[in-house]
Structure formats: C-alpha cells, structure tokens
Design goal:
Blueprint: E1 3-7, E2 10-13, E3 18-25, E4 32-39, E5 46-51, E6 58-60, E7 68-73, E8 78-83, E9 92-102, E10 113-116, E11 120-125
Parallel strand pairs: 2-11
Antiparallel strand pairs: 1-3, 3-8, 4-5, 4-9, 5-6, 7-8, 9-10, 9-11
C-alpha cells in the first residue's frame, strides 16, 4: 500500500521560510517522479513543482519560481519543498503526489499522479 505523509507546514510571516517534507512508502520511490500541489480555500488545486524520478530535472510554476526548491533524498524515500520569501498568496494546503508511471519526468497535471498525501497547511500572514 502506497502512503505519502507530508509534514513541515505551519504559520509564518511574510518573507519567512518553511521546509515541507513528504515521506513515501509502499512503492519503489526511487523510480517515480514526485510533485507538489496546493489548494487555497475556494480555489482549485494547482501545480507547484515537480522532480523527475532521478532528481536530475525539476520544474516550477511561475508563481513560485526562484523562491521554492524541490528536492529528493532517495535514501530516505523523502521529497522536500523548501519555500523561501513566502507571500500571503502562498497560503494553502500543500499536497505531495507520486506520478502514475515509472521513470517519468513528472507533470504539472494532477491527473498524472495516482497517490496523494493528506496535505499540510501553510499559512502566511502579513
């Protein structure tokens, strides 16, 4: 059974930083691309960042480019999202997900991911 567990969310002031973690189990983690998405109240879930199966390729939404960094530690079966220079519009529930095929690049489309974590809340206040 595949399980993804996010952690590291919380409340922070504008300009602050948070580091989200997503611990994966139940799948050969090292052969799957991973993604981070977020959903703010009243809005649809949106893509944030993705990292390919090997960790050699990353891609970001324009809204977070230059501020967020996605990485993975295959030895720990964990993917991270380092978030710097946080803004109020970053407030959302953040979800990690694993792509639905092996050795993939990852995708900005939620439909390309088959397992999701429960989410972790990030709140940025001014």
């Amino acid at each position: 059974q595949v399980q993804l567990v996010e952690s590291g969310g919380g409340s922070v002031q504008v300009g602050g930083s948070l580091r989200l973690s997503c611990a994966a189990s139940g799948r050969t983690f090292t052969t799957y691309a991973m993604g981070w998405f977020r959903q703010a109240p009243g809005k649809e879930r949106e893509f944030v960042a993705r990292i390919n199966w090997s960790g050699g390729s990353t891609y970001y939404a324009d809204s977070v480019k230059g501020r967020f960094t996605i990485s993975r530690d295959s030895a720990k079966n964990t993917v991270f999202l380092q978030m710097n220079s946080l803004k109020p519009e970053d407030t959302a529930v953040y979800y990690c997900a694993t792509e639905n095929r092996r050795f993939g690049l990852g995708s900005s489309l939620a439909s390309e991911y088959d397992y999701w974590g429960q989410g972790t809340q990030v709140t940025v206040s001014s």
